[in-house]
Amino acid sequence: MGVKIETADSAVKAYLDGELDHHAAGQIRDEIDLAVGNNTPETLIIDFGEVTFMDSSGLGLVMGRYKVMKDIGGHVVLKNTPAHIKKVMRLAGMDRFAQIS
């Protein structure tokens, strides 16, 4: 699992790639939090377009980043979310905290 971070305007974009499990979640969390801390964006966009597998660690990753963004007055957008991951996120209630597309 990898993550590519881009910053533009008032957003931090995190492009995830591969399997999002407990082995990868910590590193991804740290990289996203560093970018958010350095840029204080209004929006954090997490792109799931290249994610092939996600376990509950992915839900924890999103919830934790939601809390970080809420603390600085920002919000989270989940982009290119595959149907099977989108279903799990909606069942977990993530659509109450983040825009999912």
Q: What is the topological layout?
A:
Layout: E1 2-8, E2 11-20, H1 22-39, E3 43-54, H2 56-71, E4 75-79, H3 83-91, E5 98-100
Parallel strand pairs: 2-3, 3-4, 4-5
Antiparallel strand pairs: 1-2
Helix pairs in contact: 1-2
Descriptive keywords:
101 residues, alpha/beta, 43% helix
Describe, in short, the structure shown.
With 101 residues, this protein is α/β, with parallel strands linked by helices. It has helices at 22-39, 56-71, 83-91, and strands at 2-8, 11-20, 43-54, 75-79, 98-100.
Model description:
The chain is 43% helix and 37% strand. The protein has 101 residues and is an alpha/beta fold. It has a single domain (2-100), classed as 2-Layer Sandwich (Transcription Regulator spoIIAA), CATH 3.30.750.24. It has a five-stranded mixed sheet with strand order 1-2-3-4-5, covered by helices on one side. A hairpin with a 2-residue loop joins strand 1 and strand 2 (11-20). The relative contact order is 0.18.
